[in-house]
Write a structure and sequence with these properties.
It is built from twelve helices and seven strands. By secondary structure, the chain is of the alpha/beta class. A hairpin with an 8-residue loop joins strand 1 and strand 2. Helix 3 packs across helix 7.
Length: 316
């Protein structure tokens, strides 16, 4: 049978629209990762079980580091960085990840009441594997600068530990040259137990020193504002001028030193040395240091630290 030349073609699939079998189709080629993504994966690999969990509380970092073989973990923090009077106090505390949950009331020292800080201080010293406190007085801060003193104080606090930590957590900014792996944690005193413990030890130690300074210079009210810039403190500076405990590198102190009120002069030859501030303190005991007799008896009967210049460490 012949087909008429004008007849339509026989129905059937158009060869141009027939799809090839799936097996014959080449899979799409994935896009190559960018160079920055490769570097990030190489530098910061994520290992299963080695990532801190948000619901693990203050012990999250220490637990993960202990699981990775970096226990024990040391935390370093300071107190008095923003004050215009009194010493800068830096503390290093080493905690066992398995004991952190036994420390009752542990939190960022700035979030605790004075009474709660004293209780947490006693708990930290009870369960800590080791601790070391460094005190840097005002004239050192004026001579070398606040940040330099802060970083060197953190190094000295770490170097004074008798226990060798496997890892170090610092609050806010990195500290190089420690000789062990370290991590700077933003607001570390609120998210890691070891830094919170160091914060409590540094804060309580410094507060006691400021109460001692109040006994020497009661006109400034150091027992209330602890040397920080408050309206009360500014009025006292304007009225009496700076004391030897003030940091003359601070603008408000330098301004007050230019034209102090001569009605109540301060003897410029009566310097305050940090060793005088810690000489009567017993950081291993959370007693009320406002009682000189109790402080002397506590230091003699329950001495648990060793002095090293402006430093104090746990006697292990």
């Amino acid at each position: 049978m012949t087909r008429h030349p004008g007849a339509p073609a026989a129905s059937g699939p158009d060869p141009s629209t027939v799809l090839a079998p799936a097996a014959l189709i080449a899979p799409p080629v994935p896009a190559a990762p960018s160079a920055s993504a490769v570097r990030s994966q190489n530098l910061y690999p994520r290992y299963p079980g080695h990532t801190p969990r948000r619901d693990a509380g203050l012990a999250a970092y220490e637990t993960v580091l202990g699981r990775a073989g970096f226990a024990p973990v040391a935390g370093i923090d300071e107190a008095g960085r923003g004050a215009c009077a009194g010493p800068l106090v830096v503390a290093a505390v080493v905690l066992d990840p398995g004991r952190i949950r036994r420390i009752r009331g542990l939190a960022d020292s700035k979030l605790l009441t004075p009474a709660a800080r004293e209780d947490a201080y006693a708990e930290v010293l009870r369960w800590a594997l080791d601790w070391h406190v460094v005190v840097i007085d005002a004239d050192q801060i004026d001579a070398t600068g606040l940040h330099v003193c802060n970083v060197s104080g953190m190094r000295r606090a770490f170097a004074g530990l008798r226990c060798r930590p496997g890892y170090v957590l610092t609050d806010g900014f990195p500290v190089r040259g420690l000789g062990v792996p370290a991590l700077a944690v933003w607001k570390g005193d609120r998210v890691t137990a070891s830094v919170a413990a160091a914060s409590v030890v540094a804060k309580v130690s410094r507060d006691r020193m400021m109460r001692d300074l109040h006994e020497r210079y009661p006109q400034y009210g150091f027992d209330r504002h602890k040397g920080y810039n408050t309206d009360e403190h500014e009025r006292a500076l304007a009225e009496h001028g700076p004391s030897p405990a003030h940091r003359y590198s601070f603008v408000n102190v330098r301004a007050a030193a230019i034209s102090p009120d001569p009605a109540a002069p301060i003897d410029p030859m009566d310097p305050v040395d940090a060793i005088d501030l810690i000489a009567g303190l017993d950081p291993a005991d959370a007693m009320d240091l406002e009682d000189p007799a109790a402080a002397a008896a506590g230091s003699a009967a329950r001495l648990a630290g060793a002095y090293a210049g402006h430093e104090r460490r746990m006697d292990s």
